[in-house]
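Figure 3 (text version): structure tokens given as input.
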């Protein structure tokens, strides 16, 4: 398992006492977002599908930041999961949508059921969460919605078509809505990460290693070397961006797609 225990730098982001609901908050990029938001004084609720990882993540977040973190078992792809998340965090000021991508493959092999599953996870589920929270944010005159998607939205890879197709749909919708909500101090932005050193990256490369009969360590090193930065991203770096976009200082920034990829996409 990839572990990131660096304590985030503290900075007054003007959101102390706000509430946040962070999907995928038990691991990887979602965990890093939750950690930075908690360090900024936000009351964070992390949501994911596996209770054991949520319990451990909430414990580590509390130890790292000195603040209690709530958790809820919730699958964003299912109506009951979205209901559970909103029962735990009924009126979030900050919503972070984050879902795992799909393994690479050949589009000729993808049945409609696979497309629907991908859309539920990476487009319909996040849009439903936005639909159910954005009006309350506008009424309260403060809201920050951050969608963690992928650089494939800007540089589509046919092998990752299930992910890039669904995520492009979310980004298109979110960027249109962002222009309607910003006058109410509700912003919507998208983070487009490249390869980061996370468990999801490890699973992706393990899949590729099996398909190509290539040692995993060789693929890991090659992927690092291929990036202009010469390394994978640290989740801490994306977490800091998420916290800034959620801050009071980001109210004039909306409908943007921020690449965080070490310079691999121009």
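Below: residues designed for each position.
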């Amino acid at each position: 398992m990839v572990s990131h225990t660096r304590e985030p730098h503290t900075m007054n982001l003007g959101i102390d006492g706000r509430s946040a609901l962070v999907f995928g908050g038990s691991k990887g990029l979602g965990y890093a977002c939750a950690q930075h938001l908690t360090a900024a004084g936000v009351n964070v609720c992390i949501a994911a599908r596996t209770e054991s990882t949520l319990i451990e993540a909430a414990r580590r977040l509390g130890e790292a930041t000195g603040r209690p973190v709530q958790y809820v078992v919730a699958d964003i792809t299912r109506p009951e999961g979205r209901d559970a998340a909103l029962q735990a965090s009924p009126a979030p000021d900050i919503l972070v949508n984050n879902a795992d991508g799909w393994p690479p493959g050949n589009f000729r092999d993808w049945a409609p059921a696979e497309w629907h599953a991908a859309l539920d996870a990476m487009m319909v589920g996040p849009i439903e969460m936005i639909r159910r929270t954005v009006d309350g944010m506008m009424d309260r005159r403060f809201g920050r919605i951050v969608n963690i998607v992928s650089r494939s939205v800007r540089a589509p890879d046919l092998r990752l078509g299930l992910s890039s197709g669904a995520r492009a749909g979310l980004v298109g919708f979110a960027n249109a809505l962002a222009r309607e909500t910003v006058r109410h101090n509700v912003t919507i932005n998208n983070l487009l990460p490249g390869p980061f050193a996370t468990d999801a990256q490890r699973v992706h490369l393990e899949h590729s290693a099996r398909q190509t009969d290539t040692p995993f360590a060789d693929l890991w090193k090659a992927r690092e070397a291929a990036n202009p930065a010469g390394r994978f991203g640290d989740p801490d770096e994306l977490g800091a961006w998420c916290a800034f976009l959620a801050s009071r200082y980001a109210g004039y920034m909306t409908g943007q797609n921020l690449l965080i990829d070490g310079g691999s996409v121009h």
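Confidence is low (pLDDT under 50) at residues 1-5.
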